[in-house]
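Per your request, structure below.
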């Protein structure tokens, strides 16, 4: 099979039913591999340790993404999955794209989106915090929570 879609990490929040006990915050990695500790994970989906939430209720989902060094999923404040260093799985890449995407290439930036695949879902209070910025404490726009320095963004 030749893959022409983009490489991605996706968090799956499958609906729990009376017959299933599906945890939240699972990760699926089409075209991508990830590491849990020292172990390279090539399977398509990996379940989290999240509880199963039945019925209509809000679950606070938090994602911490520090480039490719740490990706953490939380459900209602509890860490339910943590992995790192996502890389491109080079098997099946469209030959027309092979010069752009190499097997093992780091996936350390990109876009995010919200979607529902198989059942109704609602989102609310979506907040995004950019962790890249000026780390110089003498700058006007310094923030102590930045984890990656971008000196060109500093203002004095």
């Amino acid at each position: 099979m030749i893959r022409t879609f983009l490489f991605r990490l996706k968090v799956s929040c499958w609906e729990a039913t009376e017959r299933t006990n599906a945890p939240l915050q699972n990760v699926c990695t089409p075209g991508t591999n990830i590491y849990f500790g020292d172990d390279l994970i090539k399977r398509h989906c990996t379940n989290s340790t999240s509880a199963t939430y039945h019925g209509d209720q809000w679950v606070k989902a938090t994602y911490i993404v520090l480039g490719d060094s740490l990706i953490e999923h939380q459900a209602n404040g509890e860490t339910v999955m943590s992995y790192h260093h996502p890389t491109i799985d080079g098997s099946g890449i469209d030959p027309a794209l092979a010069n752009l995407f190499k097997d093992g290439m780091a996936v350390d930036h990109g876009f995010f989106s919200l979607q529902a695949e198989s059942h109704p879902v609602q989102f609310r209070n979506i907040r995004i915090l950019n962790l890249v910025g000026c780390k110089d404490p003498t700058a006007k726009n310094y923030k102590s929570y930045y984890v990656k320095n971008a000196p060109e963004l500093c203002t004095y």
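The chain has two domains: 1-125, 129-156.

Regards,
D.
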